[in-house]
Amino acid sequence: RSIIQLDAIRKVFTTDEVETHALSDIHLEIQEGEFISIAGPSGCGKSTLLSILGLLDTPTHGRYTLNGKPVAGLNLSERARIRNHEIGFIFQSFNLIGDLTVYENVELPLVYRGLPLGERRTRVMEALEEVGMSHRSKHLPSQLSGGQQQRVAVARAVGGRPSILLADEPTGNLDSTNGDAVMDLLKELHRRGSTICMVTHDQRFAQHADRTIHLFDGRVVEESFAKA
Ligand code: ADP
Ligand code: ADP
């Protein structure tokens, strides 16, 4: 089953009458359960692509279909609703809220969704269990290491049971030990059925994915597959 389909996607930024072609003619299909990585040098369009996939930005041309539904034509609140239900984000800088506890951080998107207290509690504890952070639920982010903070961010992303996890350089702010631990966690989530699309410029991490899309200058220049 196809979760995401991009057809002839282009993104042009215009600043002071100068056009930047951030993405040109991108075709991409992501199947349920796939683990995809998007690789390429700085400025090649990785973040732009992830922003479009996550409904944070809109393409200039082309068609985006998410779970069989065209994304074009959705209004802002419909986009926010789909983002909240279908997409789990993991950022390079964790993006936890500093004055909320671990528990409250993971709970917040579920509050936005209007889930009742009991359901929220079950999901938060399940998600924290899944990332091995349930013993830290009352801590503040500042009391955790970077690797632990990223595991909490992963719990926040999976707590909403999204169709797809979008991870933007999830290991970018971590040393290699913590980076490896977060990669192992993503691989475990994938093994249990999660669909993941991860941006990384680190070849060492890209090779953990089933398939790597190599971007250069806004175009797909190569597609490589994991050795079985
Ligand atoms: P990457 O994530 O691979 O480093 P980006 O997607 O951030 O690349 O950027 C792709 C290209 O689009 C770059 O040339 C960048 O300068 C340009 N770009 C990205 N965002 C904007 C923006 N908001 N306005 C103008 N140009 C942008
Ligand atoms: P709006 O632009 O309508 O005010 P927001 O910017 O508050 O909406 O939220 C946009 C989307 O991001 C929504 O789906 C919301 O649930 C989600 N969101 C906002 N803040 C957070 C957060 N701290 N953690 C997780 N999800 C969030």
Automatic annotation (TrEMBL):
* GO terms for cellular component: membrane protein complex; plasma membrane
UniProt keywords, alphabetically: ATP-binding, Nucleotide-binding, Transport
**InterPro entries, per database record:** AAA+_ATPase, ABC_transporter-like_ATP-bd, ABC_transporter-like_CS, ABC_transpr_LolD-like, MacB-like_ATP-bd, P-loop_NTPase
Pfam families noted in UniProt: ABC_tran
Q: Does the keyword Metal-binding apply?
A: no
Q: Does the keyword Nucleotide-binding apply?
A: yes
Q: Which residues form the ABC transporter domain?
A: 4-228
What are this entry's molecular-function GO terms? ATP binding; ATP hydrolysis activity; transmembrane transporter activity
Q: Which family, according to the similarity comment?
A: Belongs to the ABC transporter superfamily. Macrolide exporter (TC 3.A.1.122) family.
Q: What is this protein called?
A: ABC transporter ATP-binding protein
The organism is Mesoterricola silvestris
Q: What is the lineage of its organism?
A: Bacteria, Pseudomonadati, Acidobacteriota, Holophagae, Holophagales
